[in-house]
Structure prediction request, 696 residues.
Amino acid sequence: MLWICLRLPQLAIELRPSLESGPAAVTDGAGNRRHLIACNEAARDRGLCVGMDVPSCLLREPELRLFARAKADERRALHAVACWGHQFTSEVCVDAPRWIVWLEAGSSLRYFDGLSSLYTRIRDGIVHLGYTACLGVAPTQEGAALLALHRQVPPALNRIELRRCLQPLPLTGLDIAPDIAGQLQAAGLRTLADLLEIPAAALARRFGPGLPRHLQCLLGERSEPRRRHRIPPAYRRRFDFPEPVAALEGLLFPLRRLLQEFEGYLRGRDAAIQQVTVTLCHRDPAATVLELVTSSPQRDGLRLFALLREKLERTVLPSAVTGIVLAATHFVPPAIMQGDFFDDRQRRNESWSALLDRLRARLGEDAVRQLGLREDHRPEHAWCIVKDIEQSGPAAEFPDRPLWLLAPRPVHSLPHLLGTPERIESGWWDGQDISRDYYLARTAEGARWWLFRDTGTGRWYLQGLWA
Amino acid sequence: MSLPDAKPLDALLRGPRLWRGAQLARIEACSTGFAALDARLPGGGWPVGALTEIEPACAGMGELSLTLPALRAICREGRSVALVQPPYIPYAPALLRSGLQLRSLLWIQTPSATEALWAAEQLLREGAGAVLLWNAVTEDRELRRLQLAAETGKACAFLYRPPGSLQHPSPAALRVGLSAAGDGVRLEIVKARGGHPGGVTLALDRPGGSAATAAERGIRPAACAKPPT
Prediction:
């Protein structure tokens, strides 16, 4: 086992992308115990830091905006990061209150070409999601979590290295109750080396059985009881804005993050989608639903984002958006592209279907059409608009037909008729039966018309042009 | 009396130091399918990666048949052909009969001309073999954008314009006016980049021409034998 620990120390702030301007902080606790658990860069620049209590913060920075901790949002964000993490490994664990996600790397090292390559991928990926992350690598989860707090410590690949790495570290990062930490401090213990020298039984007698148990987990002498995060069979990600957002720009950042998380989830499942639903919630119960349909299996988050953006720009939002829900239930096998050095046809097809998706997203589903045939003698029923052409239709012999078809329009002065007429009499079964004599005609300007005379009424109509 | 010696002149012409205008204009083109027209056009066909303007005198002149052989070749290469904002319904049976694959055909119909222009530009830029656009584009800037998009995507752009448009200047590489000439169609080349203006008459493969009679085209004789009046 080799765990990569992702600590997201700014999670509470970063899951609210609208808090970027001006000093803002997230608080926890009630009454006089309210203290900061995360603050943005503007607040840090003004000398505020995590752990300060609210009154003294407000004294320093009266314009500080404070937000209460939203544990449900944090849990959702961590769940999404864990889903995203499944693309790297099958074993993922989450500690929501501490904002930690662990990925088991030992079994994926060969696939990702070694630890440093995997480490870089994970680190870059999490940055792309818009989170600040501290990474630690160790054979135990708690060990990795502790190493993640100390940036200068190298990865510990086995237990011996872990012990060596841990020894000089201070006790402040240990996940133990605050009163025990205080007692340790009072006893003059400063580093883990000091603590590890003391026998476990003595520690248990003085500080309770929890401390030696924690140290054993830390060093890998005892297994860590933590539930594995399971990849959900259907994807649903909810995101709530702290304040309703009316401008499109405000929606784009979270949407991009959501779709990138979704890409990680799809990679983890080795699946792709052709349809994903994005629901924009408003204050009133009616929500704006955007259906994203792609013509080929898709799992590229940025490409989906580009499509969604086109769609959003065409959508009129009835009111400010309070939340976003991304949901997908139907998954298809991904279209894996095999690189061919000499033939770029596949790549061309790929970009062509992406283009069609973009056109559809911007112009609407109905604007982008493909033609198909129907087996009917009536000219207006012999063609249709199809969504996807699999085969090129019945390649039967067709009689000569004009390239342009018109809705029949009455003709008052008859042009010069050519040749013999063609009678089409059909459609008695669906009530739209016709009985017509079709003629070819040449107008004075040299255009070729396709005319018919309704045999019932004797009236003349123009229905086609030989363009 | 002897003719002046032509050898020094030949040597000069063959030499690499002398560049002539006709050699300079290397124009990429795809055959129109009409030998007479190919001979008239610089590069021997419709310009590839450039804008071609076609101005038919009226609809049904053969304005689409004129491009069909080239479109067929593009389809055969596996590239797509897009009809953007056509004035009437492109009739699938006739298109299939004329040798186009319906799979490679795309029909874009948008409510606004601006959207259509945008779609045409995107299609030209990203992989369509040919884009046929019916649009009352008047702005020089828009024409230039189409021209640029065609250049980027190495595609053929055909812009069908209403009568009278050819009087105005345009950045298009080729500008052609269509009019009827007996059974065929007369092409008036108003502008050809790298070539000369001129005219050519073509016999298009359309019914009612001198080339084909009704019987040859397989029209069933109808019960109503008497031509109506």
